[in-house]
Fold each of these.
Amino acid sequence: MSILYVFTFLLIFPFCSGLRSCTTEEINNLVTNCSTYETKLSWIRKFEISTTEKLTKTRKLCLQASNCYTSIKCQESVEKFEKSRLDCDKDQFVIGGVPNCIEWFFKKIYNANYNECLLENDFLTFNLTTRREAFTFGKQCVLKVLNESQECDPEAVQFITENYLQIVDYLTIKSNDCQDVHSHYHKLHCDLIDDEYNKEYERLIWGDKKVEDTGLFMIQLGRELIECESHSCHNSGGIEIGNLKEEILAMEIYGRNYSWKCLYDIRRPSMKTLMEKLLCLRDSKLGDDQECRRKFVEKICGNGNATEGTETPMVTEYYTDD
Ligand SMILES: *[C@@H]1O[C@H](CO)[C@@H](O)[C@H](O)[C@H]1NC(C)=O
Ligand SMILES: *[C@@H]1O[C@H](CO)[C@@H](O)[C@H](O)[C@H]1NC(C)=O
Ligand SMILES: *[C@@H]1O[C@H](CO)[C@@H](O)[C@H](O)[C@H]1NC(C)=O
Ligand SMILES: *[C@@H]1O[C@H](CO)[C@@H](O)[C@H](O)[C@H]1NC(C)=O
Ligand SMILES: *[C@@H]1O[C@H](CO)[C@@H](O)[C@H](O)[C@H]1NC(C)=O
């Protein structure tokens, strides 16, 4: 697609640098005709629709916008065309198969043992310098894993292979713009950790796993999630960071004596303990949060079992409490 744009660009604006300024009428045309496509584009990009539909619609609108700009041959139009082209090129990185593939790749690393080379490179570190090295030296590993996957769309794999350097830039160069591709990939990462953590949480609550089997893993995931969120400009829709800190603390305090009741009541404290916690956090001096959380956890969990009077969690309660 981008090649196509550049090609059109060269055809239509062979001497673009020397173009004259647009006339009032041309500016008028730019505003009334071309900018309608941009408005629609920004709307579609934000709107929650299926990714295939999104990609089809943005492609069509990008083409229409491009045709509109190239039909008006003057300086401001070229500038708008360039800006539009950059935005449209980014669409391929954030919509559809490519982000799905990247998410799938991250997931494979968490469910280790999939391929040894995934563990040899530190793909998930938040130190972007180290991560860049991992993706640079581990290029063959990344492409091999993606290429062999059955779940990753072949067209997306092809695109990633051809645009590998650009993808690595997006994964490893921080951007201050929350709409940027980097932020988008970062959010995929945080959401994934959030997901993994909550899966373990539910296994514990429902008795499918014991603390001794998942405790350390959960502490590690939990800390990773806190770090991930600290680098993120998006609010994750998942677990609240305050709760997360308390759950990790509880696992550290009680070790294997930690029961699902404690975990359950930390996320759903009674009004009384919640008020105590909020007052304590409000009154705590800067940096005392940890002490406050510790009091809260000990009050709720006592000897590691919950003291809030929760019996077996009721299915309805569990799913409607939030
Ligand atoms: C813009 O729209 C007007 C009115 O619909 C039309 O006359 C004009 O040709 C259009 N210009 C371009 C460049 O499409
Ligand atoms: C990231 O890792 C590099 C290389 O190991 C190191 O020099 C750098 O200090 C680290 N950066 C941060 C922010 O920790
Ligand atoms: C991907 O797989 C196809 C067939 O399975 C193979 O022909 C191709 O060389 C592979 N590409 C890479 C980069 O491994
Ligand atoms: C867990 O309980 C046992 C037996 O009550 C106790 O000896 C041990 O110290 C407890 N461990 C922790 C981390 O509290
Ligand atoms: C928690 O409570 C259960 C049931 O009351 C009991 O069997 C278990 O020993 C208690 N665990 C701790 C660490 O006190």
Note: Residues 97-172 form one domain.
Amino acid sequence: MEINLSNRIMFFCFLLIATMATRGVGLRFDNKSGEFKIVQVADMHYADGQSTRCLNVPLDQQATCSDLNTTDFLYRVIRAENPELVVFTGDNIYGKDTTDPVKSMNMAFDPVVALKLPWAAVLGNHDQESSLSREDVMRHITAMPYTLSRLNPDDGSEIDSYGNYNIEISGPEGSPLVNKSVLNLYFLDSGDYSTVQSINGYSWIKLSQQKVYKSAPHEQKENAPGLVYFHIPVPEYASFDSNSTKFIGVKHEPISNASINSGFFTTMVEAGDVKAVFTGHDHLNDFCGELTGIQLCYAGGFGYHAYGKAGWPRRARVVSAFLEKTADGQWGGVKSIKSWKRLDDQYLFHNRFSSPLELVVKFTITGTSTSIELKRHAAIYTRRIEFVTISDRQ
Ligand SMILES: *[C@@H]1O[C@H](CO)[C@@H](O)[C@H](O)[C@H]1NC(C)=O
Ligand SMILES: *[C@@H]1O[C@H](CO)[C@@H](O)[C@H](O)[C@H]1NC(C)=O
Ligand SMILES: *[C@@H]1O[C@H](CO)[C@@H](O)[C@H](O)[C@H]1NC(C)=O
Ligand SMILES: *[C@@H]1O[C@H](CO)[C@@H](O)[C@H](O)[C@H]1NC(C)=O
Ligand SMILES: *[C@@H]1O[C@H](CO)[C@@H](O)[C@H](O)[C@H]1NC(C)=O
């Protein structure tokens, strides 16, 4: 293929951005299990903590429910899944009800910090609605302990919005792919509201941001699948608004995407490496649906101060990538990627500290074998539901 000069210059610009945007964070697949697991937390809507009441919980729960239930849920879901990374996809705090945004963020992210877990965050449309701007909110996040979040590529390039970066997950210690990214994660800021007078509604992913996605180093990217995280669904999610398009999971509300299409989905389809996109924003949707080879997934609402549906548990989405074993017994590239959900229901641990052994006898599991996996994990039966195979090379 002929590459003309301007393309080549662009390519090197991208390469430069990529080098700046990629931090050697040392995240890698587990050497024993060949697995890398990510818990996605969407829409915590954290405000002031104990004094912030829960929305849409059963009547008899209202008196005892606050932001602290969100904190507790986060601890318990982490304990159940034991992920390598936690990703927060925006509306982490609910600015309008937050009297001190710094305190609010510190409380919201406290579980991952306390557990010393690597974590990454992007912004939603509500994070900046108190006294801090989007830039200041993102700056605070990037300065917090154990986070891999970054503001933007710091090469001086003009870029819209705050929190556009990528993270590479390398092969396991002791494997031939120890120095190569075998899974690429991309984080983008889908903005808040349109500032263009003739266009109503939510903002969109600008062309300048799409470069961050396009710019991951070629040699790193080769053969490595990508997963993309941001807050507001791209308009292609709206193809699931008619019930004719199949998806796995729940759609309890309309898709609130931006009213115009900035082409990011097409960019991803063309590049061909992205296997799945994970958003939040619509708390009552938690499905994954496939469109031209890309799974478009929602996490469903996590936070108790976020709107929800009484009796419909708050939830999180989990995704795991599994490596293949090569003929010589070494770990190779990613073989399959799967996703499932975790609900804050009777099947999740009730106490983040309680002894696993006590819990075994308390759980009775019901359901069909197609939608529920019973997993004996550290002597605890836990429930994961609605499995989606995102990618599989068997
Ligand atoms: C919130 O937490 C309190 C204290 O642990 C608990 O009693 C209550 O049931 C929780 N509410 C919900 C809706 O999870
Ligand atoms: C795991 O790491 C150890 C030590 O680095 C190495 O000896 C071993 O071969 C690795 N296991 C696999 C399956 O790659
Ligand atoms: C990975 O990089 C380290 C440090 O540069 C080097 O010593 C090692 O040989 C490399 N391993 C492989 C398998 O490429
Ligand atoms: C899709 O199905 C849901 C639930 O069955 C229903 O409430 C909704 O009106 C349907 N939407 C369309 C566009 O048919
Ligand atoms: C979402 O995108 C679809 C397809 O482009 C469009 O028809 C719809 O109006 C958009 N939704 C909103 C809320 O703007």
Note: The pocket of 2-acetamido-2-deoxy-beta-D-glucopyranose (ligand 4) is lined by residues 242-243 (CB under 6 Å).
Amino acid sequence: MRLLVIFACVVAALAQELPLAEECDAEKCKLPDCRCSGTDIPGGFEAHRIPQFVLLTFDDAVTVSNIETYRSLLGERKNFNKCQVGATFFVSHEYTDYRLLNELYSNGYEIAMHSISHQSQDYFRNADKELLRKEIADQKTIITNFGAIPAASIQGVRMPFLQMAGNASFEIMKEAGLKYDLSMPTTQFDYPGMWPYTLDYASTQDCISGPCPSASFPGLWAIPMIAWTDLDKYKCAMVDACFSTPADDDTEGWFRFILQNFERHYLGNRAPFGFYVHEGPVRTRPGLRAALVRFMDMLSTMNDVALVTASELLDWVQNPVSLADYLQKPCREVTLGRRCRSVTCVGLPSNHTTELLNMNNCLRCPRVYPWLGNPLGE
Ligand SMILES: *[C@@H]1O[C@H](CO)[C@@H](O)[C@H](O)[C@H]1NC(C)=O
Ligand SMILES: *[C@@H]1O[C@H](CO)[C@@H](O)[C@H](O)[C@H]1NC(C)=O
């Protein structure tokens, strides 16, 4: 009897405890599916022999008021190799127009997740698995159904407020078949910059907004958000979170500011350079917007730079090739989504607000506004 009780306890403990991530052993942890955290260049290349990858990401809802910025910034823009540039959208659910999300996806941009409710930072710091299942796994259900976007194309997560929730978000990512997190800033590994790595083994990255994961999650990737340095030498993970910046209308100043940050990567170990921002500041600060356009124009003339989506970046990290070989590769395929059968839904009731909400989408009008625990709005 006593043995049985002990046995039951051990089984219960095993079911609860995740395996602790151990110190990384580069002999055992090899590409394409495992990489130790570090600043070494994947494939062992010298920096000038690989492309400098640049990531442009936008967070939050995709709406009729911000789609114009996305269309005009990205439009027909190409990299040096004539392939369309990439951008990644970390979408939060409330107010998102799923027809516009489908448009972004169909035009070749990457759609990733940023939660359903995007409520307070404390809420996400303390979020457990059950809650994150509703915020993240269910959001994938919303996006695939209402946005008519293939599940396989949805791979990434950025936690709201860049607030980590320990192991929980990674447990849910595994469950939901997701591949990477792009929420963890590093100020310690900005020069040289830390390359993306997997969570098979313990990470050496600094943890800015903990609790960070400490269990082992084989095959899940972390793309560190390498901090920028502002004009007073403070570090910032997102462009619009930098405190000391050029004035809103100072295009020249903003361009120099962007270049200074870019050059730490380009002239360093070429770790991915992130331009992580929200649409609002780009729209309302003319200097920032004009400088971003000028910066992207400049990138498209450089044969050793590529503006790509986060999953394209990971494709290269998993199978690194030289710049010369990269330039020979065909462009990523833009697999057109199921075309959107446009549905306009107005005045849907919801439990989280007394406001009636609209939800344009590609599926049908749900009975109620989709929300936590009811992703299909049934
Ligand atoms: C994550 O999992 C590891 C291994 O089971 C555990 O030691 C750690 O306390 C967990 N972290 C949190 C914040 O729960
Ligand atoms: C609110 O929640 C109740 C109980 O869970 C449910 O029956 C009702 O349909 C919900 N209403 C809306 C508008 O979501």
Note: The radius of gyration is 21 Å.
